[in-house]
Specification:
Number of helices: 10
Mean pLDDT: 90
Number of strands: 13
Helix content: 25-40%
Structural class: alpha/beta
Low-confidence stretches: 43-53
């Protein structure tokens, strides 16, 4: 088999997580693999993510690169992957999920409850902002973009940050930022975390902490080495969980500019799904939880749809502008 080309975004985080997956695939399949960085609109454009077209800005170029055979596999952060399928592509593997929680990285070791009144907290996520404000209405949420290191640099004194002066909008100007624990783990910055936010405070984005490996549908066949290798790194419990979460998101017709959190997990013979929809200011929230014993992709999909239907019936569409953020 020729060298398998693995496409990914070019950020430090994307390259780190893709290297781990590439090593696994090549070890299983016995083939050479090459990582090919792909520049996406999300890496080039500036401004709030929700105003740039949402999650798709990170996925379109990678998917195109697979379809036109520049690469054979695309590695996505699952929370960046739109719920709509693309003809000719198959989600061939969902490796085992790592920590799905959000993490607070605050100055002086502070936890969320300990931040001073009116503290400035940076995030580019409406979901995180809404849930932060639901817990602490006094906080001042600051919209931030950039890679993990850039965002961490906004908080003075965090381990690993360069020693620098306060520069408004750039360095040392915030009391805290909220980031995905998975990303911090993958680039070795977990020592910056002052509190892992519990699901009672903040439900993660659907798919957070998980990766998606897409390939051309023809290459997903289990008769080929690549298809067999992808199947070998697929983790069934993770796939069930993200299937439920993404089915909920799709039924709500919600994208990244909607404050929707969801987390599913298998426990024994049951698959549980919990979801939250919030108003952008966090003043109103709806939270529901449901379980199924249907441990199949169909069962997980139905669980997500049923929970979304409950939310919609209770007025979730009025609570948040779901349709306006659909992907």
């Amino acid at each position: 088999m020729n060298t398998v080309k693995i496409g990914t975004r070019g950020s430090k985080l994307a390259l780190s997580q893709t290297q781990q997956i590439t090593d696994q695939l090549s070890a299983v399949g016995g083939f050479e693999a090459e990582i090919v960085p792909i520049k996406t609109d999300g890496d080039v454009l500036t401004g709030p993510l929700s105003q740039m077209g949402g999650t798709g800005v990170f996925a379109v170029e990678l998917r195109t690169a697979v379809l036109d055979s520049r690469v054979d596999v695309a590695v996505h952060s699952l929370k960046d992957l739109p719920t709509a399928a693309v003809p000719g592509l198959t989600l061939a593997a969902v490796p085992q999920r790592v920590d799905a929680r959000d993490a607070l990285c605050a100055r002086d070791g502070l936890k969320l409850a300990e931040l001073p009144h009116g503290a400035t907290v940076g995030t580019g996520s409406p979901r995180r902002a809404a849930q932060l404000l639901a817990a602490r209405p006094d906080l001042a949420i600051v919209d931030i973009r950039g890679n993990v290191d850039t965002r961490l640099a906004r908080v003075p004194g965090l381990p690993g940050n360069p020693v620098t002066d306060l520069v408004p909008g750039k360095t040392g100007d915030l009391d805290a930022v909220v980031l995905a624990a998975a990303g911090l783990t993958r680039i070795g910055r977990l020592d910056t975390v002052t509190e892992f936010l519990s699901s009672e405070v903040m439900l993660p984005a659907p798919g957070q902490g998980a990766l998606a490996l897409e390939c051309r549908t023809a290459d997903a066949s289990l008769t080929g080495i690549l298809g067999q290798s992808l199947a070998a790194v697929d983790h069934q419990d993770t796939r069930l969980a993200i299937t439920a979460e993404r089915a909920l998101l799709a039924r709500l017709e919600a994208g990244c500019s909607a404050p929707v959190g969801a987390f599913a997990y298998r426990k024994g013979s049951m698959l549980y799904l919990e979801a939250v929809v919030a108003s952008l200011d966090g003043a109103r929230t709806m939270r529901v939880k449901k379980a199924t014993d249907g441990l199949s992709n169909v069962g997980a999909t139905l669980l997500g749809i049923e929970l979304a239907e409950e939310l919609l019936a209770d007025g979730a569409g009025d609570l948040a502008d779901l349709a306006g953020s659909a992907q």
